[in-house]
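User: You have something folded?
Assistant:
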Amino acid sequence: MNDNDHWKAELKRAWRERFPGKRENIEISSKVVLRGRTQPKLHLSATGVSNNMQTNEAAFEGWLLALRAWCDIPGATLSWDRPRHDCGHYQRFLFRVAHFERIIPWFEVDDNGELERATTVVASSLVINQGGAESRRASDSNSEAALERALLRWPGLPRALGVELVDHQFPVGLFRGDVTNATQVFPAGKAAVDLVGWNEHDRRFVLVELKKRGSEPIGAVSELFFYAMLLQDVSNGRFGVGGERGARVRVGADHLQRAEVLDALWLAPGHHTLLADGRIVGLLNEACAIAGDVVRFGRYRLDDSLGEGRFAIQKLEPCPRSP
C-alpha cells in the first residue's frame, strides 16, 4: 500500500487553488512509492536508482521539492533498494542524494550507510572529462539536438544568457584519475550539459538544461540539480579535470575553474506542470544561499515559433543577483 493517490490529489488541489480554471496534468509515477500523509517517505526501487535521472521513477528531487512547494510538507525521508550491481547511474544517484541532504534542511536519508560508501566519498583524484571532437548527436529536425544547434547559430543567444561565449555538450562524466572506460565513476559518453556560457566580467558560468516542445519531465529538476552540483565541485576544486581539451571547445573546464558564480537554467517552450510558478526555483535558491553555494537557479521560456532560425527568451524566474 502507498499514499500516492493522496499526494496526487493534494497536488491537484493546490494547483487548482493557485490557477483556478486552468487545466493540469499531474501524475505521480507508479514506480515512486510515497508513504505517510503528513511527512512522507519516498521509496525508490533498485531499478529506479539505477535508471537515468531524468526518468520520473528516479527524480526524487523533483517530487520532494514539488510536495514542499505545493503542499507545504514539513519534511520528507528518502529510502531505496540497493541494486545488485553497482553502476554509474547508481553512483550518480548517491552523489545527488548527498548534495540534496547537504543543502535541504527538511530532508532526511534512510540509506543504511550507502552514502558513506559512495565512490565520490571514498575515492581520491576524481576528475571530469573534457569536450573533444565536435558532437555528432542525432539531429533530425524535431530532436532536442537540432534545437540545440539552431540556438547556437542564433546571434541573440549570448545576449539572452548574459554571456560573451556560448558552447554546447559540456561533458559530465567522472573518472578515477585517468579518463578511460575502466576508471569511469559516472556515465560519460553522451552525458553532457546541453548549453553553457561564460561571462568574463563577473566570472559567471552558465549551464542550461534544454528541453524541446512536448518534453516536460519532472526529471528536468534532477538533471539540472546534478549538473549544477557536479560543476560546482569542479569550480571549488573538489574534483579535477582530466583528458584532452578538443579544439572545437569554446567554453571549457578552464572557465569553470575560474568561475565565481554558476547560473543553472531550465530553458524550454513549456515546463512541467509543477514548475509552473517560481516555488521550486525559490526553494533551491534559498537552500543554496543558506548553504553558501555559488549556484543560482532560474527558469526561462523559449519561444521557438518565430521561424527562420529566430528565437525569443523570456526570463520567468531570473537567477538571483549576487549579494
Notes: The mean pLDDT is 92. Residues 126-317 form one domain. The two ends are 47 Å apart (CA to CA). The chain has two domains: 4-122, 126-317.
